[in-house]
Amino acid sequence: MKGYKKILIIGLAMLIALSAVLAGCGGSASNSASNSGNDKQVLNLNLTQEPPTLDPQKATDVVSIDILTEILDGLTRYDKDGKIKPGSGLAKSWDISNDGLTYTFHLRDAKWSDGDPITAQDFEYAWKRALDPNTASQYAYQLFYIKGAEEYNSGKGSADQVAVKALDDKTLQVTLKAPTPQFLGLTSFVTYLPLEKSVYEKYGDKVGTDPDKLVYSGPFVISQWNHEQSIILKKNKDYWDSSSVKLQTVNFSMIKDNNTLVQNYDNNTLDSIFVPGDYIDKYKNSNEYSDKALATNWYVQFNTKSPVFKNADIRKAFTLAIDRKAFVEQVTKDGSIPAEAVVPPGVPGYNGDFRKEAGETYFKDNDVAQAKELLKKGMAELGLSKLPTITLLGDDTDNAKKYDQALQQMWKQNLGVNVQIQNVAFKVRIDMMNKGNYDMVFAGWGADYNDPLTFLDMWETNNGNNTAFYSNPEYDKLIDEAKVNGDLKSRNDQLIQAEKILMNDMPIGPVYFRARAFVVKPYVKDLYFPTFGSDWEFKWAYIQNN
Amino acid sequence: MLNYSLKRFVYMLITLWVIVTLTFFLMHMIPGDPFTSEKKVPEQIRQNMLAKYHLDKPLIVQYGYYLNNLVHGDLGISLKYLNRTVDDIIKQSAPASFQLGIQSIILGVIFGLLFGIIAALKRGGGWDYFSMFLAIIGISVPNFIIATLLQLLLASKLRWLPVSGWGSFKYTILPSIALSFSTLSIISRMMRTSMLDVIGQDYIKTAKAKGLSQLQIIWKHMVRNAIMPVVTVLGPLIAGIVTGTFVIEQIFSIPGLGKFFVQSIYDEDYSMILGTTIFYSVILVVMMFLVDIAYGLIDPRVRLAKGGK
User: Fold this and answer.
1) Distance of alpha carbon B3 from alpha carbon A238, whole angstroms
2) Which residues numbered 215-234 in A keep a CB inside 8 Å of some CB on B?
């Protein structure tokens, strides 16, 4: 009995203590909120989640790429306008042989954060490490443009046969299998980032798991990494271009919940956020709001082996019956652009924007009359009087469900077709796509590099990503030729021609080019949002009048 | 008691083995694998990755590897958070879930008992309605709504507390309160019911007749007898809360273990799925074991009955 008395007394005491602390905390929190400094060069952003790995040769996801591109410099770095210029990264300049195959990079004098010089050997070492089958790097294929790379990775060749060589400390020579116009851009990509051999030898597979298990060559270094909670970047004083870097600190939180994210922005805890779809209306009319097209397309992909969608007219009918304008204005609501072609705007062509060079559209949006006509024609070709049950496969996120339902509604309204929806977890969707276990799927593709080829070569007959199982020999020929064509003008023409064929056969029905809505506090200057790769570029960002 | 405890310990190990085995084979039945990704990699790269993590071996061999590592205390490497071991991740994230869980249990138990006792003593009065109103809210309103409301009011509007994050004690207050609501509801309702049962008993009348004060009657006779059913539910309740809840951790951006438990299934991060499942199972089984012992300590009849078996 005495025991209970004690428990209750302790309980009450704890309760009183808790209320006292609660009251006390309230006061201090409100004080600190009103006490913000003037023009402290501190930027607060949200990373949404923990980076899975900061090992440059193993990273594949955007969150890891976000951090890696700010802490490591590659041979090149995209500038504010999204262009690669000599001297933008660790390569001061480069020479390209007349056949477009051999690149010789001349490195600038730069230091790792541990004081060691950054050498050509660090690149050779890192690239070969990515290709080493024992590293099991998922993105090793990003280096397959290099002669001997694929052979080494598949165990048919050796590291010595990979045509990347440090001629001396400051000269790196690379020979490619075929002319690759996007290669310079690729050298800024994470898999191509350098790694100091001694660091890897010291930490092994633990590289990039903690701030002290990596050395830095980029504008920032990691000063603190509280797993699942926050990452704090500090300016890298040893960075070769440190005079361009004004920010002293970048704080990353890892907030996943949309409501919490928005509240943190409103509370000034975060200086910029990507606005979740449901909150677009809240910010749309604010001067802090912008949206920007990304190099990403979303489309309805048809299984060309399915009994119904093996027919091109039916595929076209389903594509034409979508009201894209309504879709982006009423469903995505994030500034996305209706897509009537495959390659998104902003991707470079021969001498400007590929989209402008190839033509903006291949068909009319929401062309209901034509869609009905084509459906009738297609069904007659297949000898069908009634369509069998058709299923649209999609992800199980709230957004995906909303998008799928909108498409379902449009097909019902415009074609009179009842489509079933099957929402599954992401990996299950991918597995079903790979196995051809679907009729239609709503899918998207983001650029691997800034070139139309990244959106087109996936539809070649034997490409692993061609889960529509589309096959057209003429298309394959054009893409194969474009891949090795050193004449950039004719290469561009081949890609335009290929896109035209694709939109005629229509294994995919384009729906929208994705844009991303964001808000930025007015005191944040020169924060850039690249169209592909990382979410931000804040090398040049600074705080003014806060 | 020793015999009983030993037997329970062996059962515990068998239970865990069954859980590991079922989880292992069930998770391999999910379509896809940890390296299924939107951008398909060349087959050789896929093979390199599968080989590195022994996923190219037959399932039964993989199971053998896993059990062997497990008995050596090795939970393996996460297949999503490459280069990080499951042990490390659990060690880093469990303390946050623990702290949050313990605080919310303390809040829930104290207030739950208090409200339950007061409601029973003031049956039909304002206090009774108030505490039952709270209990109904706690049970019928999902805790993420309570969390969001608390966040909006106390953090966003009044700015007394931070909206989200983790660090000092002040970050734990809102999530603890949000998480404590369901415990509070369950305990206050149970306590009220069992107190009401006790109040009408003859021995209470006897106590009154003996001239004991009201407070003495409540503490010594009512609460002690009424608390038994409450203790029974405490085990699973504590296990459930201490291991963190995905939703609350997500809303308040807490670096706890809850999200790994849920997210690892989506990621098909095999070693993480197994690691968190084992960790949670151990806690649950141990908590139930402890409750049984506590039960025996509070009520000697239980101890004797179980010990005798």
Assistant:
1) 67
2) 226-230
